[in-house]
Amino acid sequence: MTKLISECISSDTFNSGFGYKIVVRNETSRTQIDKPELIAIKELKENGIILEMPSNSCQKSHNLSLFFLNPETLPAKIKIPDTGRYKEAVMEVITKVEHIEVNENKKNTIYVEMTFSQIDIKRWKKIMELYHANQEKIDGMLLNQFRRREEG
Description:
Helices cover 26% and strands 34% of the residues. The protein has three helices and seven strands, in the order ααβββββββα.
């Protein structure tokens, strides 16, 4: 008997390739989102990122500093400095908000599309490679499941 797809994929499969948490400092409004559980990565792009964030966190054209944190070494209490680098971050990027869309499926959240203003290109490419490798692994599992069902 063929296994269900849910039996073949664990939550670790989806988290292994991109296990970063993000906190945000809005440089334009001087506000912060220091709770990484309020931010979800929706899409990685060559020159930007789309995040799901709380409503009213930013506006179009705002400049945001994104601090990528390792979840394994996440501090118990996150304190983002008002200016400058955040020493606990494994990577920092500065972005400009290009587009905002209301999330119709989750109350009080928005999708924020950003382009990078300042970034370590080599590090970002490495993150993109990890993400793509993980995506290929997931796609392969889904394709194998489909093939098994078609054969069965």
